[in-house]
Amino acid sequence: xxxxxVAALDIGGTKIAGALVDDRGRVLLRAQRPTRAREDxxxxxxxxxxxxxxxxxxxxxxxxxxxGIGSAGPVDAIRGSVSPVNVPGWRDFPLVDxxxxxxxxxxxxxxxxxxxxxAAEHWQGAARGHDNALCMVVSTGVGGGLxxxxxxxxxxxxxxxxxxxxxxxxxxxxxxxxxxxxxxxIASGPNIARRALDSGWEPGADGDASAAGVAASARAGDPLxxxxxxxxxxxxxxGIAATATLVEVDIVVIGGGVAKSGEVxxxxxxxxxxxxxxxxxxxxLTVAAAQMGTDAGLVGAAAAVFGxxxxxxxxxxx
Length: 318
Fold this sequence. Notes:
Radius of gyration: 19 Å
Family: Belongs to the ROK (NagC/XylR) family.
Number of strands: 12
Distance between the termini: 13 Å
Helix content: 25-40%
Number of helices: 10
Strand order of the largest sheet: 3-2-1-4-7
CATH topology of the largest domain: Nucleotidyltransferase, domain 5
Protein name: ROK family protein
CATH class of the largest domain: Alpha Beta
InterPro entries: ATPase_NBD (IPR043129), ROK (IPR000600), ROK_cs (IPR049874)
Structural class: alpha/beta
CATH architecture of the largest domain: 2-Layer Sandwich
Largest sheet: 5 strands, mixed
Shape: globular
Strand content: 15-25%
Pfam families: ROK
């Protein structure tokens, strides 16, 4: 027997994606708009409304009873509000109420985007079969979510596992979140590119000055590009080791745009992790690439709605 599909929103600094997802994690329908994150909050909400309106026009919408939102954070699941660091126009923005205004009587649940990715990877991806996992996204920001004792652990407000804003450099740069030396301030894509450019790195013939361009140079052996990725990997390793020591996870799954650089990031990350994860109960920590791709946020928002019966699905379940 299969449940009705659920609606899902994945809200980030670059794009706002929506989907209808079934209880096997299959995306039945999708819609997407650019976030326009540098514009005012109502403009961003307009993009959300466009995505939802497109979904509601589907004949399958009549079967939808619940909607899950995975949003860049911090989020406040208790109040239904969001204050994404990378969306300045949204501060204490009443997202759940605004979404309810559009979708009527649906039940709406809000979690952080890192928590959504953890739900997806535990349900259908690289963390399947693991009872204790940290799942991360390394992209324009750095986020994460936790699975503990076989269950998704969003925390009271939906932000647990938000590793991007752990401080790993006490005297480091000021982060937009207000902290200093955060993992995100060092390891996110824009900051990898910024560090490389500041050190004198020059983009290749294609002019790509993003983290992807730095990664291409690193693969070719450019020492400045390699140094920028090494610094990012060290920050990630320090944050991961601190998290694993605190809550005893046995696998770390890393996804997101920067993670697509592959071994350029993962090789130094594994090497530095040996320097930071030194206690006996974290020495065997596994680092794996995410498997869910660009649908992770959508599938994870749906997984959180479907509940613990989904997030606890055993390895091999489909």
